[in-house]
Structure formats: structure tokens, C-alpha cells
Amino acid sequence: MTASTATTPNRVRGRAGTLLVAALAGLLLGAVDLAGQLLLPYPWANLANSPAVWAAAAFALGAWVRGGPTRAVPAGIVLLLVAVEGYYVAATLVLGDDLANLWSPATVVWLAAAVLAGLVFGPAGAAWRADRWWPATVAVALLGAVFVAEAGREFRAGHVPTGTMLTVLGLALVLLLGRSARQRLVALAVLVPIAALGAAAYLAADLATG
């Protein structure tokens, strides 16, 4: 057996282990989301159910995964898909919700959003960890922007405390994850157009759903 073929089973086991961790983390994320909504006071309960927080979870997992985007993408997607279904399973067990929520049309929309978010934020986390200047800078800007974009929606809905918290978190993440003053400044500049696009997408989605 050559060295290259000998490492193949290890790579397969490594990928399988990564997906297992992603699935377990997804179950935890879904359960914590529900628990946060039930136990935390306003506006913290809103933050527990924030799509931006879920995106940050995919980013964190992508940063943890070794192997770059080839592992970060499926890990992020699995994390969020399992989190969506885990949330509804927890709601069934704790609140007595209908188990049919697992495959309802609304859930299908959330599952599609989970795939998209995992596809974007999983590799963003990996790019930040790899620490190549431009990809890492854009990754940090993306993470901050998803919080600021959601904050815009909350402000528009009149949820000022939630919007303020999301804005502060988004900016704080950029300052925390940026590795130099220059990278932080550039990431903040890149954040602005990305957040504007995200806010426009939120607005379009709200108008489409009435």
C-alpha cells in the first residue's frame, strides 16, 4: 500500500468525523435556540432566534474545520440543516408542536436558507482561519454584515433594542476578528455595501410574504 492510498481512509474518517460534529452541533444549536426564546427576557430572546447568530455558528464551525472549503462547506450546510430540524423536534418534545412542522412549506424555506447560509458562512470561517489577507478580510466583513443587515430589519419593525444589539455585535465581531487595524478598517468599509444588499434582501422577502 502506497503512502497516498494509506492516507485515504484517514481522510474519509476525518470528513465523517467533521460531519458528525456538525450534526451534533446542529442539534445543540436548534435546542439552544428554542430554549433561549422560552427562557430569556426581551430582547435577548429575539437574539436567540436570530438568523445572524446561526450564520455565525456556521462561520465558527468553518473556522474550526481543518481542510479548507472542501470540508467547511458541507460542515456548515449539515450544521444548519440539522439545526432547523432539531429546532422543530425540540418544539415537538417541549411544547407539543405538530411533528408535521418538520416538513411544512415554511420549514422547507428555512432548509433552503440553511443550505445557502452554510454555503457562504462555512467557507467564510475557513477563509478567516487561513489568514490570507483579502479572503480573511471579506470573511470578517460578511460576518459583521449579516448582523447589521438583520439589525436594519429589526429597526424597520420597531424593535430598537434588538436592532441595537445586532448592530453592536456585528461591529464588535469585525473589531475582534480583524487581525490588524488596517484589516478592521477595510472590513468595516466592505461591510457597508454587503449589509445594504442584505437589508434589501430582507425587505424584498418581507414584501413578498406580506
From TrEMBL:
Xref: Pfam families: DUF6518
Transmembrane segments: 44-65, 77-96, 102-121, 133-152, 158-178, 185-205
Keyword Hydrolase: no
Keywords assigned: Membrane, Transmembrane, Transmembrane helix
Top-level taxonomic group: Bacteria
Protein name: Uncharacterized protein
Native organism: Actinocatenispora thailandica
